[in-house]
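Extended Data, panel c. Modelled sequence:
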Amino acid sequence: MAPPILKLDDIFLSFGGAPLLAGAALQVEPGDKICLVGRNGSGKSTLLKIAAGMVEAQSGEVFRHPSSTVRYLEQAPDFAGYNTVQAYAEAGLGPGDDPYRVTYLLSHLGLTGEEDPKNLSGGEARRAALARVLAPEPDILLLDEPTNHLDLPTIEWLEGELQKTRSALVLISHDRRFLEKVSTATVWLDRGTSRRLDRGFAHFEAWRDQVLEAEEMEQHKLGKAIEREEHWLRYGVTARRKRNMRRLGELQTMRASYRGHKGPQGTVQATVSDAQESGKLVIEADKITKTYGERPIVTPFSIRVHRGDCIGLVGPNGAGKTTLLKMLTGQLPPDTGIIKLGTNLEIATLDQKREDLNPEDTLAHYLTDGRGENLLVNGEQRHVTGYMKEFLFQPEQARTPIKNLSGGERARLMLARMLARPSNLLILDEPTNDLDIETLDLLQEVVAGFPGTVILVSHDRDFLDRTVTSTIAPAVPDAPDGRWIEYAGGYSDMLAQRKGAADERKKAEKAEKAKAQDAAPTAEAPKGKGKLSFKQKFALENLPKEMAKAEAEIAKREEKMADPNLFSKDPTTFNRVAAEMEKFRDSLVKMEEEWLELEMLREELEG
């Protein structure tokens, strides 16, 4: 076994009250890919900062190999003194590092490098910080929520980069699929201490449940042992004749251990406050469009959303997900087409930017809207501290300013307020950001069991697979052109359907190519003097008619695929129509190129 390049042992840290870390440990060896997991507020980010040397532990051993380089992904990067993002990212390079790595990383993260750091959004600042820490390929890479604000193509690219990197990794993330693909070991931070599993995150939850079951069994055995000793103390003949001081001491120790045991933090428990039932048809969009300048964001798109549907919106950043969402919910009028909203809609929204939060507000004031100590949940008056407990906040936090909460706690607080309000249509924009695994489980249960309608935007593949009934995605994932398609099922189902359509298209193309190989006219050089061959003349006259026919066939199939229920009713027809449409498009392009070549040849010969 290689010697560790980073070792934290018996780390203790307290900010007053119960210690945040009490005996936590972390050991990193070359090539390790460790995910650090635990509840919001369990100290994951703090332990990572201790590893990076940004926070000092009150006691315990901290060892970093003198020759090892360490890079830490900052949540709020400091751009002071840098005029461009390129300059900021290059400042993270060490002697001998390749500066081209910065350009390569920035391009894959959606930045040019020429951006002014003063004008960056929060997501762009995070991407710049990611490029800065990845570029030098350090010995130890410490990443805190690296996937926040990244779209799905970029997350999948980052997975590949981290899988092949030589750096040892310690990472914190809420994205289950990301952790499963990248990690090879798991460190669980729980109640101030840590446990290590030398397997990736895919095996963590089953192992965690076994640990907690064994712990509960040990506590049960200890309780029974205390009962036996107390019975001996009260009724045993030996005990009445003379006190056995050793056994008395052991009993006191067992009692102290039993009373001092702190069980696992409770689970979040909540349900959505029911509003009056909405109409059966919630949203109807008929051939809606939206264009900004010369760029189409939504080309004619139609959909019918019914009560009980859960629809996911996915796509790369800038594809137009938020624009489409605002159009569907009536916040933004379409350029053309019609949007109809159903009756009795009560909408609750969870905003990814957390703009609804005033940092100076207290938790109680935010949850009650400043209306005293109580709030109405499902028609029942609840005291704010009791409601807070369901979301794992302590009663003493009621007067705590929101600015003192971690990112995950803020997300949980917004979730608590949203679920308290009566609603029958939930709009969730990146709801999984900063949530711990347990709160994610709660949100999945809430969404899956919600009797109303849900529309959500997310880059979390696992969350989409577990919740949505259909997925809306760009027709061309790598280069969105405004065309959107609704697929039945979650993210993995969408990928399978796309693959099926692509396979059907390839089969059709192969058959068409074999059939037309001998008959296809060619623009070969004429054998006669100064004139086109008979085949070329025929093709030049006939191709415009064939192109018009192909355009008509494409239009017919586009109209057919505009039916949002086509795939759910008949997936075979959906895949066949998609393949045929792509075949006609390819044929049209070839005919246009051939006609242009022949026309240029005719002009050359006649001129």
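The two ends are 80 Å apart (CA to CA). This feature is highlighted in the accompanying rendering.
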